[in-house]
Design a protein that fits this description.
heterotrimer, A mainly alpha (295), B alpha/beta (327), C mainly alpha (309), B: 327 residues, 32% helix, C: 309 residues, mainly alpha, MetI-like fold, 2 domains
């Protein structure tokens, strides 16, 4: 083999590899991936896909049923009590909920990983403090912590997203700390330190790439948890506030009309369940692939 | 001649908890308790002892990886900078380490060639193309092949991995190599190859070595001088051949008697008493509880290393004729 | 053993202190406590009296001490809406919450654990796969979706059960079921994996190779060992007995602590929020304590921890 850099793979080889991988995955996981891809497309292209504005009233078409229950093509998923198109609101809600979950996960992962590395690197006082914070968070149900913070600070979207981020930072911190400690004590991190590398190089080039796969699997656990938490809070009216709409929000509004117009609530509820289910399936499968010894 | 590396009365204690619960007491674990030696350029000092005697810790102290609780380490006459400082990091180009577990010492996500190149990248030496060439050259000199540059650690055998670690250690042309049980994790047939490799490298590059092992046969083969450790202290130190041929300290004698010699049926000295515990070091001579020649006087004071037959021995009864006899 | 208990008690007290300190810090950060707790149109004398009682005009350390003393006597001031002491408001709602969470807890364990054990003992059988498939719904379906679905089916379509309110005991049925199903699903999954891990251990194989009847192997060796990690989860569920019904109570208009919390947050009735925090923290900490004790009794390795060297 030539001594050229072997990290460049020709495009055909990449596609071939992808095709092989697709054939090997179980059917359920493929479905899950497809659903998630659809959700992402909807979230990203929401502005283009929107048939109506989410606040557009049509008082003549209030509580119109969806297509499969005798409705018209004008409103494929029906309308709500103010004549607003359910499909449009659903599309915007998907974007909102996914955005919140995405940024929340990012915040949780970044914060948690940083604190985990700090704890493993500095040890003693810093580590003790961080461990205490982890213990505290694990000792109270996060719903209560979230509600308390919302009570004290009121509600604003940035605060809300930050709160979602706080939901699971401790998981990342614990994992990162454990793996970093192991690398530092006996492993490759200690060896590279002995080569004369500075901390930046050790953590940036060696430790983080090695723990990345475990962190990614954790993200597939965090993401659905945040969706559930956010939709729960929005359902209670304490999360995303109108005129913005989220999946939990919609279910909250649809609750009053559960007898007369169940589709208002069923559409977002179905999306929530399918999305969280898909990510969980994907996450389980990813975890099995990355470490088959872990049950 | 200034020794390349000098350890002067090194001590390293750890505070450990004794007992359980929030009111547990603390006691010092004396991993290293007053160790001194000097390594001359191009020479090998072998450090032997059983598990827990403190030899690995001594190796780390010698490199300055951990700061000593007492005593000093000098490299080429200069005191060792504190670990992690810029001066210490720059010094890494002169001092390198080979590990017991080569798989653990390598990053499993990077090709081995990149890892061999890494010391040059860290110390800012040469362009990437030159770094690559030098890495390839070093890999060949340790018996690897050029195409293995792109392999990952788990794709190589144990012996090959250790060669990679060795190549990486040699990249900055260090003066001293600390080898901490470098062959314990390898198959016996590979062990011989790696040992020979180390000897060849020493001859061609003039590297000094601190060779830490519990395997006496290998140490004898590789070292010019040997120091025997017990519970954090050196009990006997001297030229390798002579030390193994006629050991003086009772502990060394017990160790040497356990080396199997083909064709010879030898009397093995079996030590009585509990294996040593560095938290609970016996008063006076640390070995006296298991020593076949121990007396009450041995408990009174810690013996210091005194010259005997061209060697250094730490035993209160070193001048005793009865000791010289049984061998 | 005494050392073990003492250190755990100390840890419990510290956790409660930590929670109340968290509340104190957050309260100070979010604005003037007097104005926040008393509402904006309270008479100035009342605000002044509040300030004095809580030491708001003194140094931050004295404020903290005053706060902690108040907290530990359960005094958080009066609810903004009611005018009654916040702690009374909370305590009188606790029985209603317990009325649904305790039966739910029993169901979670009663349904989940046997299901998990059965699934583990008949690994890869139809029941195993079915149980696992259904239990996935347990943690992917939000509780409010489940609640509304059950209401849709049983109250709206079939008309068998009432949709909300707390007039008659039958009203409790749907809330209890809604609370218990996700928990039972989680229990089932967890028990199954704990059992599987134990069953894979060499000592199980050894016991069975010795000729011990499989039934005995399971009941005498596998179950007790699998119980140890399961106790932690049960502990968390017991701890959440006051806190875990927030959404369910809201959906079913059940007058418990959860519903009170939601309305307190919506109205920013901070006195009530703090009172609830204390009650929940105490509950969780006590549950953890009980779990630790149970561990000490169940796991002989932990029991010997108090002994001297």
């Amino acid at each position: 083999m030539a001594l050229s850099d072997t990290t460049v793979t020709p495009p055909r080889a990449l596609l071939g590899g992808l095709a092989r991988r697709v054939r090997r995955t179980p059917f359920a996981v493929s479905l899950a991936a497809a659903w998630l891809a659809l959700m992402v497309v909807v979230a990203v292209g929401a502005d283009l896909l929107l048939p109506y504005s989410i606040t557009a009233f049509d008082l003549k078409a209030r509580l119109a049923p969806p297509l499969f229950m005798g409705g018209t093509l004008a409103h494929p998923l029906g309308t709500d009590e103010l004549g607003r198109d359910v499909l449009s609101r659903l599309i915007m809600s998907i974007r909102m909920s996914l955005l919140i979950a995405f940024f929340g996960t990012l915040i949780a992962a970044s914060l948690g990983t940083l604190l985990g590395i700090l704890a493993a690197h500095f040890r003693r006082v810093v580590e003790a403090l961080i461990l205490m914070a982890i213990d505290f968070q694990a000792s109270m149900p996060f719903m209560i912590i979230a509600l308390s913070v919302l009570a004290f600070f009121g509600n604003s979207l940035p605060l809300f997203v930050a709160l979602m981020g706080f939901q699971s930072w401790e998981r990342y911190a614990r994992i990162t700390r454990g793996l970093t400690l192991a690398a530092n004590e006996q492993g490759y991190a200690a060896a590279v330190r002995q080569l004369g590398a500075g901390s930046g190089r050790i953590y940036g080039l060696h430790v983080i790439p090695n723990i990345a796969s475990t962190l990614i699997v954790s993200m597939t656990l965090t993401f659905p948890e945040i969706i559930l938490l956010e939709s729960g809070l929005s359902f209670l009216g304490l999360g995303v506030q109108p005129p913005l709409t989220s999946l939990g929000n919609m279910v909250g509004y649809g609750r009053e009309y559960i007898t007369r117009a169940p589709w208002i609530m069923l559409a977002p509820a179905t999306v929530i369940v399918l999305t969280t289910l898909s990510i969980s399936l994907l996450g389980d499968w990813l975890r099995d692939k990355l470490d088959p010894t872990l049950q | 001649m200034t020794p390349l590396l000098e350890a002067i009365d090194l001590r390293r204690h750890y505070q450990v908890r004794v007992g359980r619960g929030p009111f547990a007491g603390k006691a010092p674990l004396r991993a290293v308790d007053g160790v001194s030696f000097a390594i001359q350029p191009g020479r090998t000092l072998g450090l032997v002892g059983e598990s827990g005697c403190g030899k690995s810790t001594t190796g780390k102290l010698a490199l300055g990886l951990i700061p000593p609780t007492g005593g000093t380490v000098r490299h080429a006459g200069q005191p060792m900078p504190p670990p992690g400082s810029a001066a210490w990091r720059a010094l890494r180009a002169r001092l390198q380490m080979v590990y017991q577990d080569p798989l653990g010492a390598l990053d499993r996500r990077l090709p081995v060639g990149r890892q061999v190149m890494e010391p040059l990248t860290i110390h800012g030496d040469a362009t990437p193309a030159e770094q690559r060439e030098r890495a390839l050259a070093t890999m060949e000199s340790v018996g690897l092949q050029r195409h293995q540059f792109d392999r990952f650690p788990h794709e190589l055998s144990g012996g090959q991995r250790q060669r990679v670690v060795l190549a990486r250690a040699l990249m900055t042309r260090p003066d001293l190599l600390v080898c901490d049980e470098p062959i314990s994790a390898l198959d016996v047939s590979i062990q011989a190859q790696v040992v020979n490799l180390l000897l060849d490298l020493q001859e061609s590059l003039g590297i000094a070595m601190l060779f830490i092992s519990h395997d006496l046969k290998v140490v004898r083969q590789v070292s010019h001088e040997v120091a025997v450790m017990y519970l954090g202290r050196i009990v006997e130190q001297g030229e390798a051949g002579a030390l193994f041929a006629a050991p003086r300290h009772p502990y060394t004698r017990a160790l040497v008697s356990a080396i199997p010699v083909p064709g010879v049926r030898r009397e093995r000295i079996i030590l009585a008493g509990d294996p040593p515990n560095p938290v609970d070091v016996p008063a006076g001579c640390a070995f006296h509880t298991r020593c076949p020649f121990g007396t009450a006087a041995c408990r009174a004071a810690v013996p210091s290393l005194r010259p005997l037959d061209g060697r250094l021995v730490a035993c209160h009864r070193v001048d005793d004729p009865a000791l010289r006899q049984a061998a | 053993m005494l050392l073990f208990v003492a250190s755990r008690l100390l840890r419990a007290a510290l956790t409660i202190l930590f929670v109340m300190t968290f509340a104190f810090v957050v309260l100070r950060l979010s604005g003037d406590p007097a104005l926040l707790i008393m509402s904006v149109d309270a008479p100035p004398e009342a605000i002044k009296a509040f300030r004095q009682a809580w030491g708001l005009d003194r140094s931050i350390l004295e404020q903290y001490l005053a706060y902690i003393t108040h907290a530990f006597t359960g005094d958080f001031g009066k609810s903004m809406r009611d005018g009654r002491p916040a702690i009374d408001l909370v305590m009188e709602r606790v029985p209603a919450t317990l009325a649904i969470t305790l039966p739910a807890l029993a169901l979670k364990i009663g349904l989940g654990v046997p299901a998990g054990i059965h699934a583990a003992l008949h690994r890869n059988s139809l029941t195993d796969r079915l149980t696992m498939a259904i239990s996935v719904a347990g943690f992917t379906m939000p509780s409010f979706v489940l609640a509304l679905l059950l209401v849709l089916i049983f109250a709206v379509t079939l008309g068998w059960l009432p949709a909300s309110g707390a007039d008659a005991p039958i009203n409790a049925l749907l809330p209890i079921v809604t609370l218990s199903l996700p928990g039972a699903a989680i229990m089932a999954r967890f028990t199954r994996s704990a059992m599987l891990e134990v069953l894979g251990q060499p000592y199980i194989r050894a016991a069975s190779a010795k000729g011990v009847a499989w039934r005995r192997v399971v009941s005498r060796h596998a179950l007790p060992n699998a119980a140890i990690p399961t106790v932690t989860i049960v502990g968390f569920m017991v701890g959440s007995v006051v806190a875990g019904a927030v959404i369910v109570e809201s959906v079913f208009a059940w007058p418990g602590v959860g519903r009170l919390m939601v309305s307190a947050v919506a109205n920013r009735d901070l006195a009530v929020v703090q009172a609830i925090l204390l009650v929940i923290a105490t509950c969780m900490v006590s549950a953890n304590l009980a779990v630790d004790m149970a561990y000490g009794w169940l796991d002989p390795r932990v029991r010997g921890a108090g002994a001297t060297r």
